[in-house]
Q: What sequence folds into this?
């Protein structure tokens, strides 16, 4: 797994809760909502323009501007200044996943020349929150600083009737992950999730969805397929192979087109065959 824990920040719970209670009342941006199944949204604390309504990331040179949302969350902004190389930051956001919501397996930065070096810091989480990369599923604990490699297929979820908040900081892509942190601490144990075997029967049951799939339930099915790898030992990107197989078996041209479009949008030319052992 290329994603890894780099450090842990000290969090003062009382001041953090002060900011978290403000976040509860905020309107979240609908940017990137095509990636979600169930509840997922973001708020923008800092970006190129300083406008929090500008929810989409952008590549630029020059320094980041704090938005009105960032200014209203002084404790979180201070935590960032205390722990990270502020001058190399390109954006600061909070990702909220809630109530069994997830992000469909995808590769980031496909629309960019280089993308970013991205770190995650959980500010509110629970045991049913998971992230994945290729064939691994892991859990990020409160205050841990994780490098998340967006160049590999990955996904994230809050599979409980609760809310998960991650601080997500994008740095200049030229910066190696450990250089984003002022004082990196190594040797923090990572929590990898053990999952049940993904059996031939499981695969057969998935393919049998070909008799039920149609353009109207396609996205609901995509969300369901995305959730499987969090509990069964199969790779995140397997959903694109399944979708392809299900849609061919369905004989429905519209579904086949949707399946191809989805794969292209979410993982581009990533070769699922190269990793077919895990499908
Ligand atoms: C991003 N990528 O890179 C988004 C977040 C999933 C897709 C949600 O900002
Ligand atoms: Co991503």
A:
């Amino acid at each position: 797994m290329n994603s890894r824990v780099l450090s842990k920040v000290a969090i003062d719970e009382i001041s953090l809760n002060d900011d978290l209670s403000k976040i509860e009342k905020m309107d979240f941006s609908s940017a990137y909502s095509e990636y979600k199944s169930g509840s997922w949204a973001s708020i923008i604390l800092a970006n190129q323009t300083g406008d929090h309504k500008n929810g989409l990331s952008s590549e630029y040179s020059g320094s980041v501007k704090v938005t009105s949302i960032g200014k209203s969350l002084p404790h979180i902004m201070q935590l960032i200044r205390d722990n990270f190389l502020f001058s190399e930051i390109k954006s600061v956001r909070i990702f909220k996943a809630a109530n069994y919501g997830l992000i469909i397996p995808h590769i980031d930065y496909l629309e960019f020349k280089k993308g970013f070096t991205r770190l995650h810091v959980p500010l509110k989480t629970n045991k049913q929150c998971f992230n994945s990369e290729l064939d691994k599923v892991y859990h990020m604990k409160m205050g841990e600083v994780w490098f998340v490699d967006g160049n590999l297929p990955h996904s994230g979820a809050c599979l409980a009737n609760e809310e998960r908040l991650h601080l997500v900081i994008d740095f200049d892509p030229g910066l190696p992950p450990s250089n984003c942190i002022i004082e990196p601490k190594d040797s923090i144990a990572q929590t990898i999730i053990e999952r049940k075997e993904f059996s031939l029967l499981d695969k057969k049951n998935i393919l049998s969805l070909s008799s039920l799939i149609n353009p109207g339930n396609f996205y609901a099915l995509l969300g369901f397929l995305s959730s499987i790898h969090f509990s069964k030992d199969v790779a995140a990107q397997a959903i694109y192979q399944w979708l392809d197989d299900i849609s061919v078996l369905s004989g429905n041209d519209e579904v086949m087109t949707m399946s191809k479009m989805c794969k292209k949008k979410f993982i581009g030319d990533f070769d699922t065959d190269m990793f077919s052992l895990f499908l």
About this structure: The chain has seven helices and 13 strands. The mean pLDDT is 96. The pocket of cobalt (II) ion (ligand 2) is lined by residues 106, 108, 150, 154 (CB under 6 Å). Helices lie at 13-24, 68-71, 74-83, 200-207, 218-228, 238-250, 253-267.
